[in-house]
Write a structure and sequence with these properties.
With about 600 residues, this protein is α+β, with helices and mostly antiparallel strands. It folds into three domains: about 140 residues, Jelly Rolls; about 90 residues, Immunoglobulins (Immunoglobulin-like, Sandwich); about 300 residues, Alpha-Beta Barrel (TIM Barrel). Helix content is about 20%, strand content about 30%. It has eight helices and 32 strands. An eight-stranded parallel β-barrel has the order 23-24-25-26-27-28-29-30, surrounded by four helices. It has a six-stranded antiparallel sheet with strand order 3-2-4-10-7-8, with no helix packed on it. A four-stranded antiparallel sheet has the order 1-12-5-9, with no helix packed on it. α2 packs parallel to α3 and α7 runs parallel beside α8. The longest helix is centred in the middle third of the chain and has 19 residues. The chain is globular, with a radius of gyration of 24 Å. The protein binds beta-D-glucopyranuronic acid (BDP). The site of beta-D-glucopyranuronic acid (BDP) has 10 residues, from loops.
Length: about 600
């Protein structure tokens, strides 16, 4: 699926704004034909989560309906063009109608989907209706409301003490959370592109695979602007690929995130049918022994786990917050982040390319468990998410690794977990063999899925959930565990989460839990430890900012306070102390 763009063949209209909205707690909308339009609506912002917009909406995770009207722009013609509507993210699932006609459905938040609406549009007064279902259930991913299962089955982590009962530690925000776009494109045009890059000494090589939906033989004209590289190829069933050589290339890296403009024209006879432009970074990424090599050089990841989370808009798309978070990460001296615990917005990924961040791109597979009920469906969903994520993000030079899950509850389900992850890793490898694969575990030595990963991602809270308040006890335990993990698996390790809650403004000397001093000391001591271990190739602090969670005794004010910035992006002591380490790295730059 191509990201929408405007050029002489393609245009887009952003439907963001205030839409009509209605909660449907009795699930009556289907019967009452709300698919064709409904009354009794209140205004709601799109994109945004519904939960922080309304007094009565925070904990509502059921069905809700959205509708809006639009007019097709002048010049868009159903007989000549293909017109579609694209949703960047609806959580958790969506069913969509246009003028009363069902267009389709999509399950899973955080990944885009689109429908061809060419046949169903009118010149004016088109009514788009979306039914969103935000319920948490055991057979969804991420799952929730596991209480009944937990009684029958072996113990599963902390869900029973969490309200709403998600099997994960962030608020289950719902709604149309990213932009909705109307797109016009040629009927016979470019439908997909895959760009793979390689380097040989100083030279770059860019391989472009092109798909189109035209009839007959086409020619693709491919040019890499800012170089002399031009290539032309006939696109038919056998040949779909164009190779561009770039002598003395600028390689993409965090220190120099150089992007080339790739421009493609689809030609038939003498007519150009379509064009598309893409920014391309020439780089390689691979694991060799204990190292992660970017363009053949070892690279060390300094950065964060994060959440798309901000007051009022919830998990809604907010470009200003995205820009701010990049500015904070740059100020800190970070070069990397993981898209915890779901794919981030497409703007976030484009800026990672442009600003030179190394991204571990994670699917929404968080809080997985392996009890029989719903297991097959959860695996199907994880496969779908993996396919959709790789299809969406495969061309970003910033994406250096796919993460196929965060913290599956595998401990007492070793065989089931292996049987789950083996085909999932195979699928990801078959879709993209150019990037290493990982998954993130809290289990460590007993993690069955580590067997399939190229890099081990470990989340650790020694000094917090274990050895509370005792950093002097915690650090040696962590050190021994890292050594044992490396010895057992012989793979490089990224500590993808470590951190402590700190209530901004709360101080203690000697440091104690929840004080800014304790958080700062803990992060500093972890980082110093990592610097002593050659097989540790990255450190991601949990979290960049405080973020909204469900309510529980562990979450003061319904917030996870492990941010080194507050939810409104003000630094705690730890931000200054880690910045001093990261902007003056003595080793592992
Ligand atoms: C890890 C989870 C993360 C939590 C964090 C914590 O991956 O989502 O927010 O712990 O407890 O287990 O702060």
């Amino acid at each position: 699926m191509l990201y929408p763009q405007s050029n002489r063949f393609r245009q887009q209209v952003d439907l963001s704004g205030v839409w009509d909205f209605r909660f449907d707690p009795q699930n009556e909308g289907d019967q009452a034909s709300w698919q064709s339009g409904f009354t009794g609506a209140r205004p709601a912002a799109v994109p945004a989560s519904w939960n922080e917009q309304f007094e009565d909406g925070r904990d509502y995770l059921g069905v809700a309906w959205y509708q809006t009207e639009f007019t097709i722009p002048w010049g868009w013609a159903a007989d000549k063009h293909s017109i579609s509507v694209r949703f960047e993210s609806v959580n958790y699932s969506a069913e969509v109608w246009l003028n009363g006609v069902q267009l389709g459905a999509h399950e899973g938040g955080h990944l885009p989907f689109e429908f061809d609406i060419t046949k169903h549009i009118r010149p004016a007064n088109n009514r788009l209706v979306v039914r969103v279902d935000g319920e948490l259930t055991p057979d969804r991913v991420p799952p929730g409301n596991l209480a009944s299962l937990m009684q029958q089955e072996k113990q599963i982590a902390f869900e029973e003490t969490n309200f709403p009962a998600g099997s994960f530690d962030f608020f289950p925000f719902c709604g149309i959370q990213r932009p909705v776009t109307l797109i016009v494109a040629p009927r016979e045009g470019i439908s997909d592109l895959t760009v793979l890059t390689d380097i040989a000494d100083r030279d770059g090589r860019v391989r472009v695979q092109i798909k189109h939906n035209g009839a007959g033989e086409m020619t693709a004209r491919v040019a890499l602007k800012n170089t002399d590289s031009l290539a032309e190829a006939v696109i038919n069933d056998e040949t779909k690929e164009v190779l561009l050589e770039v002598p003395d290339a600028h390689f993409w890296s965090p220190a120099s995130p150089y992007l080339y403009d790739l421009h493609i024209e689809l030609v038939q006879g003498t007519s150009v049918l379509d064009e598309y432009s893409l920014q391309v970074g020439i780089r390689t990424i691979r694991v060799q022994g204990d190292q992660l090599l970017l363009n053949g050089e070892p690279v060390y990841l300094r950065g964060f786990g994060r959440h798309e989370d901000f007051p009022v808009i919830g998990r809604g798309y907010a470009p200003a917050v995205i820009v701010k978070d990049y500015a904070l990460m740059q100020w800190m001296g970070a070069n990397s982040f993981r898209t915890t615990h779901y794919p981030y917005s497409e703007t976030m990924m484009q800026l990672a390319d442009r600003l030179g961040f190394l991204v571990i791109d994670e699917t929404p597979a968080v809080g997985l468990f392996f009890a029989n009920e719903g297991l097959e469906q959860r695996l199907e969903l994880c496969k779908q998410y993996t396919k959709e994520l790789i299809a969406r993000d495969k061309n970003h030079p910033s994406v250096i690794m796919w993460s196929l899950a965060n913290e599956p509850h595998s401990q007492q389900y070793q065989a089931e977990s292996s049987a789950f992850f083996s085909p999932l890793f195979d699928l990801a490898r078959s879709l993209d063999s150019s990037r290493p694969l990982t998954m993130t575990s809290y289990i460590g030595l007993q993690e069955p899925a580590y067997e399939f990963a190229d890099v081990l991602s470990l989340n650790r809270y020694a000094g917090w959930y274990s050895q509370p308040g005792q950093l002097d006890e915690a650090i040696p335990v962590l050190s021994a565990e890292l050594d044992a993990l490396h010895q057992k698996f012989n793979k490089p390790i990224i500590v993808t989460e470590f951190g402590a809650d700190a209530l901004a403004g709360h101080h203690a000397q000697p440091p104690e839990m929840f004080s800014e001093e304790y958080q700062a000391d803990m992060l500093e001591q972890y980082i110093q430890l990592f610097r002593t271990k050659a097989f540790v190739i990255g450190e991601h602090i949990w979290n960049l900012c405080d973020f909204k969670t469900g309510q529980s005794v562990r979450r003061v004010g319904g917030l996870n306070l492990k941010g080194i910035f507050t939810r409104d992006r003000r630094p705690k002591l730890a931000a200054h102390r880690v910045r001093a380490l990261w902007t003056n790295p003595t080793t592992k730059d």
